[in-house]
Amino acid sequence: MRGSLGTGNISAFERDRRRLQEAEHRKAQEGKMTFEIRKEKIMELLAENEAVSKKQLEEALGVSPSTIQRDLAAMETEGLLLRLWGGARRIKDRSIYKRKIVESNITNPMRRIGELAASKINDGELIFIGAGKTTLAMAECITERNITVITNGIPQLEALWKKHINVFLLCGFFKEYSRSVVGRQTTKMLESYRFDKAFIGVKGFDSSFAPLSADEYEYDIKNICIQNARETYILAEHSKFNKTAMYVTPSDLACYLNIITDSPVENIGQFVQEKQAYIWKRQHK
Question: Fewest C-beta in 10 Å: which of 223, 251, 258, 276?
Fold first, then answer.
């Protein structure tokens, strides 16, 4: 009787092949992704979730369990999180802004984006600046004094107040991890203003360059800004392109956005270099 591979053996062979491919993929990802990049992504996941499992982190980062274990141990030593059995938990009084700003860890790409964005402000304008790390980098770069800024970000408020810039904080519910205010009252107030320019961050862009939002509050704020500002600028690092999310700004609004990033993305958009960053100017209203 001739020997043959049974379905069980075929399944085992296929399972081993897939495991090898996954291991090779993780190894390649680990080579590309430094600890600092992984740390930032872990903190972003913890900003959106009270706790995350090791399995979630492995899938999100594409790295091995041993790498996740080392990263979590190092981050706990830095006081950035608390390790749990099978995962990690956010430290409640440790927001991403306290870590990034108080410890002066705004990345160079964010600074370059912020400098270019700040250069778009003119004397006497009414400006909206949204919450986020990149918009905070922008606030630090503003040199104009005779302007009025409306914001929902508390770190942005603090940075502008130190520069003696006239700034107004919207009211709403406090969002701890981003130190911002959100909610129906926030969007209701925002709807009553007409801005010369609006500068907002973003969770990412989909393949058609529509901005993505992490939640309904962020989604509403983006769309109101696009509708109520003569010019709206999205500030985003180049790694945020070609992403997916539940909340997507409609194309009839997204087409009016100007995008500022730290590096042009290959085969995406019509970016032109200004200063040390890149801008893609879209159509005017």
Answer: 251
Judgement on whether residues 156 and 43 belong to the same structural domain of the protein? no
Which residue has better confidence, 111 or 50?
Answer: 111
97: which residues sit within 8 A by CB, 6+ positions away? 133, 136, 155, 178, 179
**Average of per-residue pLDDT values in the chain:** 83
Same domain for 135 and 112, yes or no, is yes
Instruction: Report d(CA 177, CA 90) in Å as an integer.
Output: 9
DSSP letter string over 212-249?
Answer: EESSHHHHHHHHHHHHHEEEEEEE--GGGSS---SEE-
Q: Burial letters for 213-235: b for 16+ Cβ neighbours within 10 Å, e otherwise?
A: bbeebbbbbbbbbbebbebbbbb
Domain assignment present for 35: yes
Assess if residue 1 is contained within a domain.
no
CA distances in angstroms from 62 to 16, 22, 59, 65, listed in the order given: 18, 9, 5, 10
Beta strand 195-200 with 126-129: parallel, antiparallel or unpaired?
parallel
Q: Would you tell me how many other CB atoms lie within 10 Å of the CB of residue 282?
A: 17
Number of folded domains that form the chain:
2
Q: Are 113 and 235 in contact (CB under 8 A)?
A: yes
Cα first-last separation, the chain: 78
Q: How far is CA 77 from the centre of its chain?
A: 25
Range of the domain at 104: 100-280
Is residue 2 situated within a structural domain? no
Q: What is the CATH number of the domain that holds 21?
A: 1.10.10.10
- Render pLDDT for 184-228 as a digit per residue (tens, 0 to 9): 899 999 999 999 999 999 988 988 888 988 888 889 999 999 999
